[in-house]
Amino acid sequence: MNLEKYKGIFPAFYACYDSTGSVSAEATKKYVEYLIEKGVNGLYVGGSSGECIYLSVEERKKTLEAVMEVARGRIAIIAHVACNNTEDSRELARHAESLGVDAIAAIPPIYFKLPERAIAKYWNDISDAAPNTDFVIYNIPQLAGVSLTLSLFDEMLKNPRVIGVKNSSMPIQDIQMFKRQAAINKREIVVFNGPDEQFVGGRLIGADGGIGGTYGVMPELFVKLNALLEAGNFENAGKLQSDINEVIYTMCSANGNMYAVAKAALIELAGLRLGGVRAPLLNLSEEDKAVVDKTVYLVAKAIEKWI
Predict the structure, then answer these.
(1) I need a surface site. Which of 26, 27, 103, 303 has the fewest CB within 10 A?
(2) Catalytic residue among 17, 44, 122, 138
(3) Could you tell me if 42 and 102 are in contact, meaning their C-beta atoms sit under 8 angstroms apart?
(4) Distance (Å, rounded) from C-alpha 191 to C-alpha 203?
(5) Which of 30, 166, 179, 224 is catalytic?
(6) How many of the other CB atoms lie within 10 Å of CB of 288?
(7) Is 31 labeled as catalytic in the residue annotation?
(8) Reading across the β-sheet that carries 103-106, which strands appear in turn?
(9) Residue 280: is the preceding peptide bond cis (ω within 30°)?
(10) Is the full-model pTM beyond 0.85?
(11) Is 166 designated active site?
């Protein structure tokens, strides 16, 4: 398996809408090109940042088709395909494989509290629908309500297509734990750091790269941060992480959803118009303009300082 292609910076791709709130293939393609030009290693499409649970199956297909039209063969693409039922998830998995994505990913099924054997079957059924495509487990217990336990991970490692974990749990030691457990099972995997504000810590404890929801508004800063770590420049990496975290905390301070802030900031930072967010996520209030302005200022200031 070629796991090298999964190392580095993978922005969690934002859903792109037109003025009517419909998915926009044109805006999607422009955003892909922008991120590639910034030097990212890959994209994670259709996840939380892509507002996946609020989009239809056809909308998610349309987004991925537009992404692949621009990105195929240029950077690695991981397509999150999970829906809250198995058949729709399998349909998205088949579609993703037909487009030539590098990997598919899935959160566990949400709402009902299922036994581990049901979760493993759900993931394996999805993986079986894309038999020639790598599979990434998405561990985000604070939202999914289900944690990737070591016993569940052991079961999933029996599937040879499982090549990694997108780990968005906050305990940073989970990254090391999954690496260790894979080694016990004589498997080599990649682990992506999830929480953007702990990227440095995640990488130092063993993450191979990161998938993050704020990378998309400041991709060059995360590319630089990863380069500093690769060069062993840990002092400056810590300082840049602090500057990045100030942006993140600002984005999270709005009345509206963080991704609405990110998209509004990208109008000023990159001339990209990606629309708002899909209800029931909240769009920006009038008071949030100050948050957007501060976000733009902090990102521009950090780019001037570090790039």
Answers:
(1) 26
(2) 138
(3) yes
(4) 9
(5) 166
(6) 20
(7) no
(8) 8-11, 209-212, 190-193, 162-167, 134-139, 103-106, 76-80, 42-45
(9) yes
(10) yes
(11) yes
